[in-house]
């Protein structure tokens, strides 16, 4: 591949480090995504973060991080997602198309998947925003700096959620 070809390829690639965290009692949680791309010889980075209240699990917050990150992509790209959560990696790489074909239900009773709303939204965004995608399960990230940034930001937003939860509970 020539340098010009590599530059064109790199301009079509986005790396995303994601993290989600939640309180043990599932009352609050936070998520974060760090998006990185290299276009025209310039490195770009963007942080997306937020929090959720009632029903926040680590999986739900991690899925929310992917969804919110994909919403930031303006043109179809090659997307690489890095997560430390194996169920998110397996869900995206192995099960998502199968779940979509079954309308995000499982079993004979056609019960909705857990976090069906986020899996459904994720599926639509991947179709719209990605030329191709791969979710990498990482016990240790190849880029620890971005991984730690995502983890710390998710934790910071989880604390904001907990404060919001307590503020609302006290006000009532």
Automatic annotation (TrEMBL):
Q: Which residues form the RNase H type-1 domain?
A: 10-159
- Native source species: Paenibacillus rhizovicinus
Q: Which terms in the Gene Ontology molecular function aspect does this entry carry?
A: nucleic acid binding; RNA-DNA hybrid ribonuclease activity
Which InterPro entries does the protein's record reference?
RNaseH-like_sf (IPR012337), RNaseH_domain (IPR002156), RNaseH_sf (IPR036397)
Q: Which UniProt keywords apply?
A: Plasmid
Q: What is this protein called?
A: RNase H type-1 domain-containing protein
Top-level division of the source organism's lineage: Bacteria
């Amino acid at each position: 591949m020539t340098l010009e070809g590599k530059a064109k390829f790199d301009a079509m690639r986005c790396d995303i480090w994601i993290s989600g965290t939640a309180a043990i009692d599932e009352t609050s949680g936070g998520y974060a995504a760090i998006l990185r791309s290299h276009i025209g010889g310039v490195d770009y980075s963007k942080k997306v973060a937020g929090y959720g209240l009632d029903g926040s699990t680590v999986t739900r917050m991690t899925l929310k991080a992917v969804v919110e990150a994909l919403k930031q992509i303006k043109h179809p790209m090659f997307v690489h997602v890095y997560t430390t959560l194996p169920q998110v990696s397996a869900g995206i790489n192995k099960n998502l198309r199968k779940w979509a074909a079954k309308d995000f239900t499982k079993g004979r009773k056609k019960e909705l998947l857990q976090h069906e709303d986020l899996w459904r939204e994720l599926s639509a965004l991947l179709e719209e925003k990605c030329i191709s995608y791969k979710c990498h399960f990482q016990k240790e990230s190849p880029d620890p700096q971005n991984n730690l940034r995502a983890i710390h930001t998710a934790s910071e937003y989880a604390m904001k959620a907990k404060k919001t939860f307590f503020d609302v509970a006290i006000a009532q």
